[in-house]
Amino acid sequence: MTSESGFPWESVWVKSRYSRNENRLRKAEMKLGAFKRMGALQGPLGRVLEIGCGNCTFVKIANESGIILDSFVGVDKSDSALERAEQNIQNIPNARLIAGDACDLPLSPSSVDTIIALGVLEHIADLDTCLRELARVSAPGARLLISTSNTRSLMYPMRLFRQWVGAWRYGFQRNDSAETLEHSLRPFFKISSIASLHGDRDYIFSTLLDKLIGTVNQRWGRYVLAEAQLKELGGSDV
After folding, report:
1. What is the Cα gyration radius of the chain?
2. What digits encode the pLDDT tens for the residues 67-116?
3. CA–CA separation, 204 vs 212, rounded Å?
């Protein structure tokens, strides 16, 4: 299955270290802990949608940690990822998986209370269309939990270099800062909390330098994490 930019995500889940279970679990635990520290996971999540859900490691460990979900829908382009996800959603109530596109969701309007988007919005070229679609399926007061790659990280120039030499395997990607993410979301969602999160041992040199710079610049880190709320009807900028 190929993305709108022509990139075969199926190959990532079949051949890349990106898809290894230990890597997915480690990153999911990091992000879950960060969202908890931000206060973004307080109270039941209600009806949950995760776009780019992969093998659903994040929602699995969230459910195991006592976070309450009424139902769960996971959407991903990769059939291989969804095959892996089947086992991880077994204990999640009313859970189902859809092979599909975050820009064209087969869901009813106002049918979702919480949307999870971890490392996916940065790979969507038509971000405005995606956010409009997420707003469409969001119930009043719905929240959006985001993790995206940060421009304020040494991983950003490393990624640009890898693209330049033809060694980048992950297709289209934009990196955001806290400010550019807020600007992109503004027509549909309003950020209520935002934080940076450092990487870990997979790129140890850049992680250590990021952490050092992060002691004087709190917006510096490998990821930008944000919680945002759906704007009230008539409150968008579009």
Report:
1. 17
2. 999 999 999 998 889 999 999 999 999 999 999 999 999 999 999 999 99
3. 12
- Once rounded to an integer, what is the mean pLDDT over residues 132-147? 97
d(CA 221, CA 26) in angstroms, rounded, equals 17
DSSP state, residue 231: P
The single-letter code of the amino acid at 145 is L
Give the integer Cα–Cα distance in Å for 74 and 100: 9
Two tokens, residue 168? 């980048």
Interval 15-43: pLDDT, tens: 666 677 888 889 999 999 999 999 999 88
Closest CA to 193 of 234, 237, 232, 144: 144
Burial code (b: 16+ CB inside 10 Å, e: under 16) for 169-204 equals ebbebebbbbeebbebbbebbebeebbbbbbeeeee
Give strand ranges (E) for 79-154: 95-99, 112-118, 138-149
The CA distance from 5 to 125, in Å, is 7
